[in-house]
């Protein structure tokens, strides 16, 4: 029966198109032959069905499209697995898959026909032409998932529009002049409200507060604060704040805050801060204009104002003053740093401390030898405006023998740079140990009635010392310098030890018996 139906269909097709012009050239035979060869390796049942279908359409013409509207099928519903053949003269494409065969006219960019493979009893879909039938007219058929061989690359921004374009406008919270809360969500009135007065028995939560928000434990403002927020433990503002935040432990502002933040432990402002931050432990802000004061440390990105901390201050760009008990650190400083250690990359002001490290400033290590035959090693660090100098030395003849000429000093200096020359002026306090140090150690064996060691002789003689020097480079990274120094004794206050004096010293007498003893010396040295 199956063979009879196929034969009948072939005869009908041949008779109906006998009078039509042959649409395909003789080369279509080669195309169909190649299609047979391509599909011959598949399963026997599928191969036989496809070859029958190919035989059915050898003389088929696409000009009479209206004849097959009843069995039309849109080719877009059928998957193309990407296998294709072409005839020898390049006029026609044949595309095959497990479910269909499609012939396409290359020059017209038009599908000529599609042959589907279904059960032999369903002859209505065995042979069909593409048509633009509506979706409701198209019968359902199994369709495998598409597997695009070359997906088009698209910009993610074009495929997925910004989420902000789909955001719904935020509904404004209801307003209540007074909100009484036990905990967030348990309040009168219920819900999250905007208010002018919020009271929290334990904790309160409001949307925006323009007025006062007070809670015994914590208080949360989700939106903006204009006024006063106070809590026993912590207070937080999600948006901008203008006014006062005061808590026993900490305050947090999610955006800019202008006013006063005062907490027992810490204050944090996510964005800009203008005003005063005061905390027992630390303060943090992004761009701070005003004052930060903390018991341990302060930190900010940019500071225009004052930072005062018990241990350290940290900022990127400082235009103002940093005062710390131990360390001040910044990248660029236009102002003053006061601390035991001051660190910066560029300093256009004054670092005042025991150690001043400026990456692009004065960083000298060297030695000098004076006319009293003393050799000193020194280290200078800071800026041209102000650098610190630490030095020590003695006469080479006393090295590792005694301390008759041993002395150390610490001071501050100022440098004037006019390439290739540099002029240094520094003032220091020189401490002379010498033979008095040995006497003091022996005297320390004497114990008073309270059990304390008694120094009958002062172990250190301190006096001011002034230096002026001129330097110039001789090699890259190496400079030679020389100048004059003067050790100064003040009558009734301090005296220059005889071991450091020269015959050229002179005396300047003042009123009421006061006088200055100046002991000048020449020196030269090298520095890196």
Offer a concise description of the structure.
The protein has 528 residues and is mainly beta.
Any overview of this molecule?
The structure is a single chain. This protein is mainly β and 528 residues long. Helix content is 10%, strand content 48%. It contains five helices and 35 strands. The chain has a 21-stranded mixed sheet that branches. The chain has an eight-stranded antiparallel β-barrel with strand order 27-28-29-30-31-32-33-35. A hairpin with a 5-residue loop joins β1 and β2. α2 packs antiparallel against α3. The longest helix has 15 residues. 31% of the residues are buried.
Strand fraction equals: over 45%
How many helices? The count is 5
What is Rg?
Answer: 48 Å
Q: Determine the structural class based on helices, strands and strand pairing.
A: mainly beta
End-to-end distance, in Å?
109 Å
Tell me, rounded to a whole number, the average pLDDT.
76
Low-confidence stretches: 16-27, 57-88, 116-137, 145-157, 162-166
């Amino acid at each position: 029966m199956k063979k009879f139906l196929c034969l009948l269909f072939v005869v009908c097709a041949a008779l109906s198109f006998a009078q039509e012009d042959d649409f395909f050239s003789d080369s279509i035979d080669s195309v169909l032959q190649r299609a047979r060869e391509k599909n011959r390796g598949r399963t026997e049942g599928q191969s036989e069905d496809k070859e029958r279908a190919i035989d059915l359409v050898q003389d088929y013409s696409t000009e009479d499209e209206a004849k097959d509207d009843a069995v039309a099928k849109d080719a877009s519903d059928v998957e193309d697995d990407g296998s294709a053949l072409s005839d020898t003269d390049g006029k026609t494409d044949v595309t095959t898959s497990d479910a269909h065969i499609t012939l396409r006219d290359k020059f017209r960019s038009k599908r000529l026909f599609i042959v589907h493979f279904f059960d032999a009893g369903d002859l209505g879909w065995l042979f069909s032409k593409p048509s633009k039938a509506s979706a409701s007219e198209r019968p359902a058929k199994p369709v495998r998932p598409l597997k695009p061989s070359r997906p088009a690359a698209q910009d993610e921004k074009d495929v997925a529009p910004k989420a902000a374009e789909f955001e719904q406008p935020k509904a404004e919270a209801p307003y209540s002049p007074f909100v009484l809360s036990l905990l967030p969500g348990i309040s009168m009135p219920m819900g999250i409200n905007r208010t002018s007065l919020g009271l929290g028995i334990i904790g309160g939560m409001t949307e925006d507060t323009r007025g006062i928000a007070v809670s015994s434990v914590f208080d949360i403002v989700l939106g903006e604060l204009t006024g006063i927020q106070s809590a026993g433990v912590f207070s937080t503002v999600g948006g901008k704040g203008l006014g006062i935040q005061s808590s026993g432990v900490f305050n947090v502002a999610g955006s800019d805050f202008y006013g006063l933040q005062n907490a027992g432990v810490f204050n944090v402002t996510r964005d800009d801060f203008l005003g005063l931050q005061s905390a027992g432990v630390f303060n943090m802000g992004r761009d701070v204009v005003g004052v930060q004061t903390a018991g341990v440390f302060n930190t900010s990105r940019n500071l225009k104002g004052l930072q005062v901390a018990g241990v350290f201050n940290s900022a990127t760009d400082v235009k103002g003053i940093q005062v710390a008990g131990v360390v001040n650190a910044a990248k660029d400083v236009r102002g003053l740093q006061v601390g035991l250690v001051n660190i910066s990359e560029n300093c256009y002001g004054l670092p005042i401390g025991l150690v001043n490290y400026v990456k692009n400033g004065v960083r000298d290590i060297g030695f000098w030898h004076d006319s009293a035959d003393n050799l000193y090693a020194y280290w200078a660090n800071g800026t041209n405006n102000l650098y610190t100098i630490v030095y020590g030395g003695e006469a080479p003849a006393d090295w590792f023998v005694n301390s008759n000429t041993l002395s150390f000093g610490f001071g501050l200096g100022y440098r004037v740079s006019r390439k290739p020359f540099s002029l240094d002026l520094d003032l220091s306090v020189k401490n002379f140990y010498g033979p008095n140090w040995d006497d003091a150690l022996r005297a320390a064996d004497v114990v008073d009635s309270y059990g304390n060691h008694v120094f009958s002789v002062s172990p250190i003689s301190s006096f001011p010392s002034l230096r002026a020097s001129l330097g110039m480079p001789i090699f890259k990274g190496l400079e030679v310098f020389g100048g004059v120094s003067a050790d100064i004794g003040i009558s009734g206050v301090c005296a220059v030890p005889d071991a450091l004096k020269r015959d050229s010293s002179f005396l300047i007498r003042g009123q009421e018996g006061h006088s200055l003893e100046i002991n000048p010396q020449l020196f030269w040295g090298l520095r890196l």
